[in-house]
Amino acid sequence: MTKQTILTPAKLSWQDSTPVSVAFDDFYFSTDDGLNESRYVFLNPNKVPERFLAGHLFEPFIVAETGFGTGLNFLITWQAWEQLSEPKRPLHFFSIEKFPLHKNDLAKALSNWPELTQYIDRLVEQYPPIVAGLQTLEFDDGQVRLSLLFGDIATDLHLLEFQADAWYLDGFAPKKNPEMWTDSFFELIAYKSKQGTTFSTFTSASTVRKSLTNAGFNVSKQEGFGKKREMVYGYFDEEAVSFSKKTPLNKKRWSYPQPNDVKTISSKTCINQPVHQCGNSHYDVAIIGAGLSGLATALELTQQGLKVCIIDKQAGPVKGASGQTQLAMYAKLPSEANKLFHFTIQALSGSMRFYHQLQSKLEQLGYKPFWHKTGLLQLAWNEKENIKQTSFLSNIHLPEDIVRHVDAQTASTISGLDISKDALFFENCGWLDPVLYSDALLSHFPIDSLFDQRVSELKFNNANQKWVLELDNSDAAICANYVVIANSNEAKRFSQVNHLPSKPLRGQVTSIKHHKLKGTNTVVCGE
Q1: SS (H, E, C) 79-133
Q2: Do 123 and 71 form a contact (C-beta atoms < 8 A)?
Q3: pLDDT digits (tens, 9 = 90+) for 145-164
Q4: Which residues of 96-106 are buried (b: 16+ CB within 10 A; e: fewer)?
Q5: What is the rounded CA–CA span in Å between residue 275 and residue 279?
Q6: Max Cα-Cα span within the chain
Q7: Which of 114, 127, 165, 123 is nearest to 144 (CA)?
Q8: Which of 24, 146, 276, 500 has its CA 20 to 30 A from that of 123?
Q9: Is the preceding omega at residue 87 within 30 degrees of 0, hence cis?
């Protein structure tokens, strides 16, 4: 099997405290005044601060950037957003980077600007491990989001679902990085733009101006920053496009066909009950199932400003498979970088950050700790598992802050146990107390809940375009614009999803307490 490199980190040299790309022989920012250069080139021409206050204030203002680099453009945009008083639009910043900086290099480069320290510290804390794919970082209670895609703009940008309000066309100069500045690149950013979407870039190369014009952008020139003679900026005009925006550039998503027997109309009426009990007929989303998946979905949608109701037949949350004493954050990674691997590693990396950040926030408010970052050892417990781990390590190059190999002696030191096998060590994994976690979520966030109620049937009311969730032993029902089915093994009893190729798998948990058993410092996974 051939070796597979997950992603190539940036190779840097340094001129004093300014990073220089070895691959492109170019500076990441001006040696004179990189901070004001970014404001001059990107913030000002796009009129970003003013536009945070314009339009529909509940809709996020979307900035898209080509070339995350040191993150400086994101930081100044975030700073400009935070300095404005409410009400203002949330900020969602998309950025793509083919050669990400290591966290230490990022922190060193950004240390040039002490005035941004409060933003730098929060970015560095959440900065993800260097693995290919999309990671979304949240700041200021989810009002500021950074969706950071580590990948190649030529092949990966089309995978992101957004339409930009403003483009920061950054990256290394066209002469040094011609692979990025192509006609297909400009057509792609046009496809992800709408009427009036603005752009700006440091370069005024004639090829760039021509490509922008051909893609439908109205292009203007102005004096460049510092020693640079000119730069360009402008806006997107849909009527001027020279190609069809009607044809998506990405592949059609697969889906299972809808069943023919989707039921409509319900004789039951929607109920009204006090807060924290579902029944308000104006719910945006109703979620069936209050396990980990239902709770996480409720939290995410609530933070997006939606009114959410969560329903479970049990007397409280996490009473089913999620309701164990301890839940280990555990990932069995494939030994080659296939689609399953990329999905799993993104979920694992995101989970490491999610629980840490949520706990940091809620502990300050007095909630008991529910997440324990003890690390996790995955033992090579027999010869077959040892071969799998050896194959994994030779084929996959992951950052050590996700996983690394440790010998038996090191595994013993880490765990405090006498371990005779080598292992994979996931330093930032650990275990979750699901009861404390669910209590904190439902207490702190505005998630309505209804327990001891089983949803007997789902129907869609064509008249008002709402879903009706009928309840057992009740003449009332719950109404919502959307429904999320997260009730595990019982999901397929609903006709809308019983055609999906899923099946229940039974698990087993054994608890043993004995005076001869020695405690461990970390989660240990074996057979």
Answers
A1: HHHHCCCCCCCCEEEEEEECCCCCHHHHHHHHCCCHHHHHHHHHHHHHCCCCCCE
A2: yes
A3: 999 999 988 888 888 889 99
A4: bbbbbbebebb
A5: 9
A6: 78
A7: 123
A8: 24
A9: yes
